[in-house]
């Protein structure tokens, strides 16, 4: 994948011209097919997890035959250290609502839900006000689309789209088997589009300015911008909207404290990149080519040389051991084994070669776990163990 | 053809219907893919992951139980990648597991054990987690033991209790490493809505849910020279027992079973079918009496529809879930408890044995019957009416422990008294059987003619449909039943508590107008009971049902009221159905229970 020339800060997302009414009313005058084509040509990929092309997702839902369909905005934002979706919902909620409504127009869904993280209950009143005003406008222009807030249950796994739907249906938040995918069998078994808050805002940008403006930013496979939550050993933590495709070198130059040893890209389920690989690492999708993966929730955590990578991994594994829903064997038992395993190696109760066995176990987890949580534990585990093996042992 | 697709499995092509899973496709080629969380009776969970296979071109492996085949898929069920992953998963399950097989009730019939034996898991390379966990074991229920240290969290029990039984006594609690199967508020099984039906036991792949066994108690009673040990065997045992002893499903082993029981040392080997026939006499009369009180006397205290009461799982269910309908239940005890009450009275007197020295054992396809025998009201003989209840599985254990070569046993006949049975008694073991037996008798009682069905086979109430209905119009009744002339008797049959719920909801909403409903807690009726051989499946239950109806067809007497011993019992002891003695010994009352 190509690497962008330099780090570029952009202001699409929070830039607010308060023109959502215009964007909505003009969009719903266009043909759904044209809107879908616009979205597909922007090459926007989901900003919540797997990076699935948003245009294709909407197209699949539009083509699904069913009397009822649903739109869900995933505002569960459970990844530790990220709060970009919270910022979006408190600063530019109308963009999100508009995007949901346009998605409803395109797919034929009449009902939308915002699945709001339990901890964000304090946003509820303001958000509801925005929804009320939004619905008022919809009524005025005789556009039939309702939006309801659904308060989340608090478990990290409920951010996974199918667990989220189970939880909305009043069941235990456990991921479902896929296929079938939500665009066919989603909420209440009906075709459902589920998108991350940020993804929806990007569609707003695309419907407002056209696909080209979005497409022209970023690099091949990774178009447009993305919000990053920068944290850890940095003099300027916070949320930044950056063009995709930047090199990690440039990123560290901008945000590091001069002593950056490694960066965890994409939170606990992302990858750890050590200093020697900063140069070759580009931040974007299709990362396998350059050894770096998608930025999932957009968490970028910097570590300087005072940090123990063993402790970092220990923390992540503890998180996964607790946050795994526990239904599937490789994830439930695998996470416990990885955590106890690195502890045993550190204490000298198991030989260093045991790490090899654990690495093979993470391969099995990646191959066989039921959902993204268990599948992605391998990312941080292998990138930390392989790059900082000595810290694991001594 | 549009409705079929072609895939290849391990290089062999197979054509199959659209929508079939990879697991089903493999089955069609005779390839077994190991499974743990999958069960034919239940919806697909896809959580154990041992059934993973490789689909060429896909980065990850697929759970074959949950993945539909798609045109052109190339599937590998035994590639190195698959084997290594599968082995890892088994190792992980064992790491969390108290794998002390020699001290486990399911030793020898356990899906996890079989799998680890097949994959020759000889060492544990991962860290043993079981000793680090504070697993608990719940032994308070008279029917079921729940041992969390044997649980692989496949959730088959949870799905069973929800999907087949609609009880939802079991649930998944907590997440991550603490995730486990428990009950509402983590109470003991005996303190929740659990009906003791044992379906979860029957569907559990491991030793995490097992019946509470009374094997040693029974051996001790047999060894005690003072005790006269009587055993009764329920109708469904004789068509299930063979499976536990290596015979195919649907094997009829009545004669060998009786012979085995005699060799085990029981003093008298008797037949619950006898009290099944007696139940028909009492319950049939009760139904006709209720009809008269409602239709002629307009007595509003008498409730219709009348519901059967021979399935103790169903009884506990209605006590919890529909306590306002307890008056709709027939007051008849189950055949097991009628038998128990008679053994320590009528039988004791006739055989001149001190009832105090009688130990009454029953062999049942059922775990709820263990609870039933233990109910405080079941002491009408002056003693505990039934002392020990063993399941079909426990009987097989007795037979194996005694070293009997079951297949070589000469068939024997039940002892007397209380060993006579009719075809009507036998079919109690299948869903619809009580209804059919009751109709055979009631119709004849009222009209003086046999039921208008070919060979007495009332086909509309047979089969495995969850809810079945039939109605019989009564024409030209005998004089004393004249008030029933032209009445269309509306009947329904429901098996599996989830179906019982559907029927009860129609009763509650007034959208049905049945007179008489047969309820059985277990799928298929007693033949699919929670105490029957493991495994169970729709096909196995179908074979057992065929065996039951074959058993009925082979008997010369097929109507309860023609059972000579029952006739004698009325002559010598009870006088007539619903007599004072009957009321005292054969009828009971029910208890309202809380839902939570
Ligand atoms: C364990 C786990 C947690 C997740 N949490 C979130 C979340 O908090 N917010 C979110 O938008 N997506 C989350 N996802 C991703 C969703 O499953 C889903 O892919 C996403 O909502 C789709 O939206 P997008 O296409 O706009 O990215 C999570 C996925 C996994 C596996
Ligand atoms: S991978 Fe983990 S979180 Fe996902 S379904 Fe399995 S146990 Fe649950
Ligand atoms: S449940 Fe199965 S594997 Fe576990 S101890 Fe019992 S027999 Fe062995
Ligand atoms: S015995 Fe029956 S009711 Fe009780 S938990 Fe098991 S399946 Fe549910
Ligand atoms: S108790 Fe049995 S059926 Fe239930 S989850 Fe555990 S192993 Fe599975
Ligand atoms: S049998 Fe398929 S996942 Fe358990």
The pLDDT mean of chain A sits at: 94
Question: Order of strands in the sheet with the most strands of chain A?
Answer: 8-7-11-9-10
- Percentage of residues in strands of chain A: 5-15%
Name the poorly predicted regions of chain B.
Answer: none
User: Any idea how many domains of chain A?
Assistant: 3
Q: Report helical residue fraction of chain A.
A: 40-55%
CATH topology label of the largest domain in chain A: Rossmann fold
What is the CATH architecture annotation of the largest domain in chain B?
Answer: 3-Layer(aba) Sandwich
The largest beta-sheet of chain B arranges its strands as: 2-1-5-3-4
Q: Distance between termini of chain A?
A: 36 Å
Instruction: Quickly count the helices of chain B.
Output: 19
The helix/strand class of chain A is alpha/beta
Mean pLDDT of chain B: 96
In CATH terms, the superfamily of the largest domain in chain A is NADH-ubiquinone oxidoreductase 51kDa subunit
Kindly provide the radius of gyration of chain A, computed on alpha-carbon positions and rounded to a whole number of angstroms: 21 Å
How is this structure best described in words?
The complex is a heterodimer of chains A (394) and B (596). Chain A folds into 3 domains: 196 residues, NADH-ubiquinone oxidoreductase 51kDa subunit (Rossmann fold, 3-Layer(aba) Sandwich); 87 residues, Ubiquitin-like (UB roll); 85 residues, NADH-ubiquinone oxidoreductase 51kDa subunit, iron-sulphur binding domain (de novo design (two linked rop proteins)). Chain A is built from 15 helices and 11 strands. In chain A, helix 1 runs parallel beside helix 5, helix 2 packs antiparallel against helix 3 and helix 11 packs antiparallel against helix 14. Chain B has 19 helices and 18 strands. In chain B, helix 9 packs across helix 11 and helix 9 packs across helix 15. At the A-B interface, helix 11, helix 12 and helix 13 of A face helix 2 of B. The complex binds flavin mononucleotide, iron/sulfur cluster (4 copies) and FE2/S2 (inorganic) cluster. One iron/sulfur cluster (SF4) binds next to helix 4 of chain B.
């Amino acid at each position: 994948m190509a690497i962008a020339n330099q780090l570029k800060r952009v202001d699409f997302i929070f830039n607010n011209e308060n023109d959502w009414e215009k964007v909505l009313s003009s969009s719903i005058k266009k043909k759904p097919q044209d809107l879908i084509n616009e979205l597909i040509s922007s090459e926007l990929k989901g900003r919540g997890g797997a990076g699935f092309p948003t245009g294709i997702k909407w197209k699949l839902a539009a083509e699904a035959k069913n009397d009822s369909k649903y739109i869900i905005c995933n505002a569960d934002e459970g990844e530790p250290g990220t709060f970009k979706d919270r910022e979006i919902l408190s600063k530019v909620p109308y963009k999100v609502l508009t995007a949901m409504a346009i998605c409803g127009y395109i797919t034929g869904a009449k009902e939308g839900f915002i699945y709001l993280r339990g901890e964000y209950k304090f946003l509820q009143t303001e958000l509801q006000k925005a929804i009320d005003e939004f619905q008022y406008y919809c009524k005025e222009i005789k556009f039939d689309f309702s939006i309801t807030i659904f308060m989340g249950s608090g478990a990290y796994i409920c951010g996974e789209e199918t667990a989220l739907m189970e939880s909305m249906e009043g069941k235990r938040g456990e991921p479902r088997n896929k296929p079938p995918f939500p665009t066919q069998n989603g909420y209440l078994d009906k075709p459902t589009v589920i998108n991350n808050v940020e993804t929806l805002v990007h569609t707003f940008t695309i419907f407002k300015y056209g696909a080209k403006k979005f497409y022209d930013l970023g690099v091949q496979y990774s178009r447009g911008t993305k919000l990053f939550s920068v944290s850890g050993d940095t003099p300027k933590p916070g949320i930044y909207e950056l063009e995709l495709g930047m090199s990690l070198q440039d990123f560290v130059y901008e945000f590091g404290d001069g002593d950056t040893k490694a960066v965890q890209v994409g939170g606990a389920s992302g990858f750890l990149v050590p200093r020697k690989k900063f140069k070759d690492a580009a931040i974007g999708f299709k990362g396998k080519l350059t050894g770096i993966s998608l930025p999932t929730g957009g968490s970028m955590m910097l570590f300087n040389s005072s940090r123990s990578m063993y402790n970092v991994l220990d923390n992540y594994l503890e998180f996964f051991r607790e946050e795994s829903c526990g239904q599937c064997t490789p994830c439930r038992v695998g996470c416990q084994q990885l955590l106890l395993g690195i502890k045993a190696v550190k204490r000298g109760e198991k030989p260093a070669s045991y790490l090899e066995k654990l690495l093979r176990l993470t391969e099995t987890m990646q191959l066989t776990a039921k959902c993204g949580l268990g599948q992605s534990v391998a990312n941080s585990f292998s990138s930390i163990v392989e790059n900082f093996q000595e810290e694991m042992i001594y | 053809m549009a409705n079929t697709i072609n895939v290849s499995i391990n290089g062999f092509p197979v054509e199959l219907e659209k929508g079939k899973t990879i697991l089903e496709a493999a089955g069609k080629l005779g390839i077994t893919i190991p499974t743990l969380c999958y069960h034919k009776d239940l919806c697909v969970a896809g959580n154990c992951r041992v059934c993973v296979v490789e689909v060429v071109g896909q980065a990850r492996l697929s759970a074959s139980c949950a993945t539909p085949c798609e045109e052109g898929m190339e599937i590998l069920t035994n590639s190195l990648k698959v084997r290594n992953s599968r082995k890892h998963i088994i190792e992980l399950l064992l790491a969390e597991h108290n794998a002390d097989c020699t001290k486990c009730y399911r030793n020898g019939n356990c899906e996890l054990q079989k799998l680890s034996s097949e994959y020759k898991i000889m060492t544990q390379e991962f860290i043993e987690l079981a000793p680090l966990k504070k697993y608990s074991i719940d032994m308070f229920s008279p029917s079921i033991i729940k041992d969390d240290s044997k649980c692989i969290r496949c959730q088959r029990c949870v799905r069973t209790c929800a999907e087949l039984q609609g009880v939802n006594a079991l649930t998944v609690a907590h997440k991550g490493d603490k995730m486990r199967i428990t009950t509402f508020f983590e109470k003991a099984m005996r303190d929740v809505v659990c009906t003791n039906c044992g379906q979860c036991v029957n569907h559990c792949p491991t030793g995490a849910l097992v019946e509470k066994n009374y094997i040693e108690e029974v051996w001790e009673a047999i060894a005690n020279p003072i005790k006269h040990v009587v055993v009764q065997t329920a109708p469904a045992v004789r068509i299930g027992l063979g499976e536990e002893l290596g015979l195919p499903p649907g094997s009829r082993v009545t004669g060998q079973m009786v012979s085995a029981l005699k060799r085990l040392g029981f003093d008298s080997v008797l037949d619950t079918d006898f009290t099944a026939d007696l139940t028909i006499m009492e319950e049939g009369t009760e139904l006709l009496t209720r009809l008269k009180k409602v239709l002629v006397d307009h007595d509003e205290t008498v409730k219709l529809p009348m519901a059967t009461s021979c399935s103790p799982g169903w009884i506990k269910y209605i006590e919890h879930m529909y306590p306002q309908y307890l008056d709709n239940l027939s007051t008849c005890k189950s055949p097991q408890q009628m038998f128990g009450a008679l053994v320590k009275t009528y039988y004791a007197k006739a055989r001149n044995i001190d009832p105090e020295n009688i130990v009454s054992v029953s062999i049942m396809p059922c775990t709820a019957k263990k609870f039933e025998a233990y109910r405080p009201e079941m002491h009408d003989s002056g003693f505990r009416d039934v002392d020990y209840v063993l399941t079909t599985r426990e009987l097989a254990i007795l037979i194996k422990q005694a070293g009997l070569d079951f297949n070589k046993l000469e068939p024997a006949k039940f002892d007397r008294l209380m060993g006579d049975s009719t075809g009507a008694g036998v079919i109690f073991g299948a869903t619809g059987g009580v209804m059919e037996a009751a109709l055979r008798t009631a119709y004849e009682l009222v009209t003086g003619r046999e039921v208008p069905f070919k060979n007495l086979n009332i086909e509309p109430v047979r089969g495995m449909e969850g809810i079945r209905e039939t109605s019989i119009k009564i024409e030209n009744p005998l004089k004393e039943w004249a008030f029933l002339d032209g009445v269309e008797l509306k009947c329904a049959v429901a098996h599996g508590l989830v179906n019982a719920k559907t029927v009860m909801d129609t009763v509650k909403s007034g959208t049905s107008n049945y007179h008489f409903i047969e309820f059985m807690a277990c799928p298929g009726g007693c033949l699919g009971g929670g105490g029957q051989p493991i495994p169970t499946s729709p096909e196995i239950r179908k074979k057992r049902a065929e065996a039951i109806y074959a058993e009925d067809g082979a008997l010369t007497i097929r109507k309860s009221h023609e059972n000579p011993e029952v006739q004698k019992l009325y002559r010598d002891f009870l006088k007539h159905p619903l007599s004072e003695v009957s009321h005292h010994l054969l009828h009971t009352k029910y208890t309202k229970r809380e839902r939570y």
